[in-house]
Design brief:
- With about 375 residues, this protein is α/β, with parallel strands linked by helices.
- It has two domains: about 130 residues, Response regulator (Rossmann fold); about 170 residues, Response regulator (Rossmann fold, 3-Layer(aba) Sandwich), CATH 3.40.50.
- The protein has twelve helices and 16 strands.
- The strands form three sheets. Strands 1-12-6-5-4-2-3 form a seven-stranded parallel beta sheet, sandwiched between helices.
- Strand 14 and strand 15 form a beta hairpin.
- The longest helix is centred in the middle third of the chain and has 19 residues.
- Bound molecules: beta-D-galactofuranose.
- Beta-D-galactofuranose binds next to helix 3 and strand 10.
Length: about 375
């Protein structure tokens, strides 16, 4: 397997960021706001895909071999993330993809990365199940001369990767908290008693969303009755919500689910317990991801607000690889475009760190265009 020549920059990630933002998204890191903005929408995925076809022939005609160690298959979001990568890293586009579904098992994920090293692949893509425990295997990748690209979740105990493409999870948590404050004021909800169903413990998505929402809760003096992990799954969301309906019967008026699949399970549990939720119910239901089915539940007046996390990283990872292949230095941080969704009655004005946020009304067209 031909080893691709790699520029010196492969050793570590620099602090240059490319803010791929528009609409409701805003990344709170000020240095990124100075970076060139690039809209990263579904339409530019098509454009990027078209570009990929135009450049399908690599310099020597060989396929670029890519290993992808994916978190698992736990959610609608994950399905879309996997599809985005498989659509881009196809033979037609000049790639040979080795894909491993690590089934939410960190040991299996490390094993998958080591198998990619043994296969002497050209590039390794990782969506890290949890944010720690990575430096040893990333050192092995570096010693093997194989550049690593991290997508979606972050790695917090090593910088031995060439780029990261993903979301600012704390911003998503802050958006949910600031929206709830503005919505509660508009609707005359004087007291917030919330229960939280968090994502996979130790995943940067869970850490960031919890941190952001808790920061607003602390500032506003809200009562967070409990936070337990639903592991980003529908079964997990249902099980935790069943416990909450028993332990906190009649005490909570807000449920925060850290992804749509947990919200689907929580709704089943609340239905079974006779708890009403949604814009016309007793409980405000907040969710994250904004997958198609999640937006359908917003339209059905079940989820009151849904905070998007964009899974379509494939074309942006391809840009990183094509830049390296052509001897260039890729952007080392790419933030995805994200929007905050609700029905018109729940669209309120709010800011994150003084920056006004735009909300997107859920319509049939918006649902049709979602991932
Ligand atoms: C977030 C991603 C999370 C989604 C969940 O970037 O890692 O994992 O929010 C998924 O749906 O399971």
């Amino acid at each position: 397997m031909k080893k691709r020549f790699l520029s010196l920059m492969c050793a570590s990630v620099m602090a240059v960021g490319l803010l791929a933002g528009c609409g409701g998204s805003s990344d709170s890191s000020s240095d990124e706001s100075a970076a060139t903005e690039e809209s990263a929408t579904a339409s530019s995925e098509e454009e990027a895909s078209a570009d990929i076809k135009a450049d399908a022939d690599t310099s020597d005609g060989e396929l670029i071999t890519v290993g992808f160690a994916q978190v698992g298959h736990e959610s609608d979001w994950r399905t879309a993330s996997t599809k985005s990568a498989q659509d881009v890293f196809s033979e037609e586009n000049g790639y040979e993809l080795s894909f491993v579904d690590c089934d939410n098992d960190s040991a299996a994920q490390l094993e998958a990365v080591r198998s990619f090293i043994e296969q002497d692949l050209d590039y390794i893509i990782i969506d890290p199940i949890v944010s720690t425990g990575w430096d040893t295997v990333l050192t092995e990748c570096e010693e093997a001369g194989i550049p690593v690209i991290v997508i979606d979740r972050t790695i917090d105990d090593s910088d031995k990767y060439v780029a990261w493409v993903g979301s600012n999870f704390k911003t998503e948590g802050l958006a949910a908290g600031e929206w709830l404050k503005a919505y509660a004021e508009e609707k005359g909800i004087s007291e917030i008693n919330a229960v939280v169903i968090s994502g996979t413990t130790g995943a940067s998505a869970q850490i960031g969303r919890s941190e952001g929402f808790q920061e607003i809760a602390d500032r506003e003096g809200w009562n967070i009755l409990d936070e337990q992990t639903g592991d980003f799954t529908e079964d997990g969301g249902q099980e935790v919500m069943e416990n909450y309906c028993k332990s906190y019967e009649g005490q909570f008026n807000v449920v925060v689910c850290q992804n749509d699949n947990e919200a689907f399970g929580a709704m089943t549990a609340m239905d079974n317990a006779g708890v009403s939720y949604g814009p016309n119910g007793d409980v405000v239901l907040i969710s994250f991801d904004a997958c198609t089915a999640g937006l359908e539940d917003v339209a059905a007046e079940k989820i009151t607000a849904d905070f998007e996390c964009n899974p379509l990283a494939g074309p942006f990872v391809d840009e990183v690889i094509k830049t390296i292949e052509s001897g260039g230095t890729p952007e080392t941080e790419v933030y995805m475009v994200e929007h905050w969704f609700a029905l018109s009655d729940a669209i309120v004005d709010f800011e994150i760190d003084g920056e006004a946020q735009e909300m997107t009304e859920v319509t049939d067209d918006v649902i049709e265009a979602q991932y």
